[in-house]
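Ticket #4471: structure output looks truncated?

Reporter: J.K.
Steps to reproduce: submitted the chain below (176 residues) through the standard prediction queue, then opened the result file.
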Amino acid sequence: MKILAFGGSSSRNSINKKLATYAASLFNADEIEILDLNDYELPLFSVDREKLIGQPPIAKDFYEKIEWADVLVISVAEHNGGMTAAFKNIYDWASRQKKLVFNNTPMLLLSASPGKRGGASALEAAQISMKWYGGNIKATFSLPSFKENFDESRGNISNKELDNALKEIIRNFEYE
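Returned output as attached by the reporter:
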Protein backbone atom coordinates (compact mmCIF):
# COMPACT_ATOMS: atom_id res chain seq x y z
CA MET A 1 0.00 0.00 0.00
CA LYS A 2 1.25 3.48 -0.93
CA ILE A 3 0.08 6.43 1.15
CA LEU A 4 0.24 10.07 0.18
CA ALA A 5 -0.23 12.46 3.10
CA PHE A 6 -0.21 16.22 3.47
CA GLY A 7 -1.61 19.09 5.44
CA GLY A 8 -3.81 21.54 3.56
CA SER A 9 -1.77 24.51 4.74
CA SER A 10 1.21 26.53 3.56
CA SER A 11 2.43 27.09 7.12
CA ARG A 12 6.02 25.89 7.50
CA ASN A 13 5.06 24.59 10.96
CA SER A 14 1.62 23.26 9.95
CA ILE A 15 -0.22 21.41 12.69
CA ASN A 16 -2.29 19.76 9.96
CA LYS A 17 0.83 18.41 8.26
CA LYS A 18 1.92 17.03 11.65
CA LEU A 19 -1.44 15.33 12.15
CA ALA A 20 -1.44 13.90 8.59
CA THR A 21 2.12 12.61 9.06
CA TYR A 22 1.19 10.93 12.32
CA ALA A 23 -1.99 9.39 10.91
CA ALA A 24 -0.12 8.07 7.85
CA SER A 25 2.44 6.41 10.14
CA LEU A 26 -0.34 4.37 11.76
CA PHE A 27 -1.18 2.54 8.53
CA ASN A 28 0.58 -0.69 7.60
CA ALA A 29 2.02 0.82 4.44
CA ASP A 30 4.81 -0.18 2.09
CA GLU A 31 5.51 3.45 1.17
CA ILE A 32 4.52 6.78 2.69
CA GLU A 33 5.15 10.10 1.00
CA ILE A 34 4.55 13.36 2.85
CA LEU A 35 3.98 16.42 0.68
CA ASP A 36 4.54 20.05 1.62
CA LEU A 37 2.11 22.41 -0.12
CA ASN A 38 4.89 25.01 -0.27
CA ASP A 39 6.41 22.88 -3.02
CA TYR A 40 3.24 23.42 -5.07
CA GLU A 41 2.82 27.19 -5.05
CA LEU A 42 1.16 28.63 -8.12
CA PRO A 43 -0.49 31.91 -9.04
CA LEU A 44 -4.15 32.07 -8.09
CA PHE A 45 -6.19 30.03 -10.51
CA SER A 46 -8.39 31.73 -13.08
CA VAL A 47 -9.39 30.70 -16.59
CA ASP A 48 -7.73 33.90 -17.89
CA ARG A 49 -4.44 32.97 -16.23
CA GLU A 50 -4.76 29.42 -17.50
CA LYS A 51 -5.11 30.77 -21.05
CA LEU A 52 -1.92 32.81 -20.54
CA ILE A 53 0.31 30.20 -18.91
CA GLY A 54 -1.34 26.89 -19.79
CA GLN A 55 -1.17 23.89 -17.48
CA PRO A 56 1.68 24.42 -14.98
CA PRO A 57 3.94 21.37 -14.53
CA ILE A 58 3.61 21.73 -10.74
CA ALA A 59 -0.14 21.07 -10.98
CA LYS A 60 0.54 17.99 -13.10
CA ASP A 61 3.12 16.81 -10.57
CA PHE A 62 0.58 17.21 -7.75
CA TYR A 63 -2.06 15.27 -9.67
CA GLU A 64 0.45 12.50 -10.51
CA LYS A 65 1.25 12.14 -6.80
CA ILE A 66 -2.44 11.58 -6.12
CA GLU A 67 -2.63 9.03 -8.96
CA TRP A 68 0.36 7.18 -7.43
CA ALA A 69 -1.30 6.69 -4.05
CA ASP A 70 -3.49 3.83 -2.87
CA VAL A 71 -4.66 5.92 0.11
CA LEU A 72 -4.78 9.68 0.67
CA VAL A 73 -4.38 11.14 4.16
CA ILE A 74 -5.26 14.82 3.99
CA SER A 75 -5.61 17.14 6.96
CA VAL A 76 -7.35 20.36 6.00
CA ALA A 77 -6.50 23.56 7.80
CA GLU A 78 -9.21 26.11 8.53
CA HIS A 79 -9.00 29.75 7.47
CA ASN A 80 -12.10 31.81 8.19
CA GLY A 81 -14.32 28.73 8.30
CA GLY A 82 -13.11 27.17 5.04
CA MET A 83 -10.17 25.44 3.40
CA THR A 84 -6.98 27.45 3.00
CA ALA A 85 -6.31 29.34 -0.22
CA ALA A 86 -3.06 27.37 -0.67
CA PHE A 87 -4.88 24.04 -0.69
CA LYS A 88 -7.85 25.23 -2.72
CA ASN A 89 -5.54 26.76 -5.32
CA ILE A 90 -3.47 23.62 -6.01
CA TYR A 91 -6.69 21.60 -5.94
CA ASP A 92 -8.19 24.00 -8.56
CA TRP A 93 -5.13 23.83 -10.81
CA ALA A 94 -4.88 20.03 -10.50
CA SER A 95 -8.57 19.63 -11.30
CA ARG A 96 -7.79 21.10 -14.72
CA GLN A 97 -5.64 18.02 -15.37
CA LYS A 98 -8.62 15.80 -14.66
CA LYS A 99 -11.91 16.85 -13.05
CA LEU A 100 -11.84 13.94 -10.60
CA VAL A 101 -8.57 15.19 -9.18
CA PHE A 102 -8.78 12.92 -6.11
CA ASN A 103 -9.08 9.95 -8.46
CA ASN A 104 -11.64 8.13 -6.26
CA THR A 105 -8.69 7.10 -4.10
CA PRO A 106 -9.76 6.03 -0.59
CA MET A 107 -9.20 9.01 1.68
CA LEU A 108 -8.85 9.65 5.39
CA LEU A 109 -9.84 13.28 5.78
CA LEU A 110 -8.58 15.02 8.92
CA SER A 111 -8.52 18.46 10.45
CA ALA A 112 -6.80 20.06 13.42
CA SER A 113 -6.86 23.48 14.96
CA PRO A 114 -5.77 25.26 18.11
CA GLY A 115 -9.45 25.75 18.97
CA LYS A 116 -12.04 23.46 20.49
CA ARG A 117 -13.82 22.72 17.18
CA GLY A 118 -10.73 21.17 15.61
CA GLY A 119 -11.20 22.76 12.20
CA ALA A 120 -14.70 21.30 11.90
CA SER A 121 -15.86 23.98 9.42
CA ALA A 122 -12.97 23.28 7.03
CA LEU A 123 -13.57 19.55 7.37
CA GLU A 124 -17.25 20.04 6.47
CA ALA A 125 -16.38 22.32 3.52
CA ALA A 126 -13.84 19.79 2.24
CA GLN A 127 -16.33 16.93 2.45
CA ILE A 128 -18.87 18.88 0.41
CA SER A 129 -16.39 20.03 -2.22
CA MET A 130 -14.21 16.94 -2.60
CA LYS A 131 -17.03 14.52 -3.33
CA TRP A 132 -17.61 16.32 -6.64
CA TYR A 133 -13.95 15.90 -7.57
CA GLY A 134 -13.35 12.22 -6.93
CA GLY A 135 -12.98 12.46 -3.17
CA ASN A 136 -13.66 8.94 -1.90
CA ILE A 137 -13.79 9.88 1.79
CA LYS A 138 -13.86 6.69 3.84
CA ALA A 139 -13.44 8.29 7.26
CA THR A 140 -12.94 11.63 8.99
CA PHE A 141 -11.26 12.72 12.22
CA SER A 142 -10.94 16.11 13.86
CA LEU A 143 -8.32 16.99 16.49
CA PRO A 144 -9.38 19.92 18.68
CA SER A 145 -7.09 22.00 20.91
CA PHE A 146 -3.96 20.85 19.10
CA LYS A 147 -1.43 22.18 21.63
CA GLU A 148 -3.17 20.37 24.49
CA ASN A 149 -3.78 17.10 22.58
CA PHE A 150 -0.67 16.61 20.43
CA ASP A 151 2.88 16.02 21.64
CA GLU A 152 5.00 17.78 19.02
CA SER A 153 8.28 16.43 20.43
CA ARG A 154 7.06 12.86 19.91
CA GLY A 155 4.90 13.57 16.87
CA ASN A 156 1.79 11.87 18.21
CA ILE A 157 -1.57 12.52 19.80
CA SER A 158 -1.05 12.76 23.56
CA ASN A 159 -4.75 12.55 24.50
CA LYS A 160 -5.30 8.78 24.87
CA GLU A 161 -9.03 8.93 24.07
CA LEU A 162 -8.47 10.89 20.86
CA ASP A 163 -5.44 8.77 19.93
CA ASN A 164 -7.45 5.57 20.39
CA ALA A 165 -10.29 7.01 18.31
CA LEU A 166 -7.92 7.73 15.39
CA LYS A 167 -6.27 4.31 15.72
CA GLU A 168 -9.70 2.66 15.64
CA ILE A 169 -10.61 4.57 12.46
CA ILE A 170 -7.38 3.39 10.82
CA ARG A 171 -7.82 -0.21 12.00
CA ASN A 172 -11.23 -0.25 10.30
CA PHE A 173 -10.22 1.78 7.25
CA GLU A 174 -11.39 0.20 3.99
CA TYR A 175 -8.95 1.01 1.24
CA GLU A 176 -9.92 -1.45 -1.44
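Triage note (M.O.): checked the attachment and the full C-alpha coordinate line is present. The helical segments are 15-25, 47-53, 57-68, 85-95, 120-130, 146-149, 160-171.
Status: closed, working as intended.
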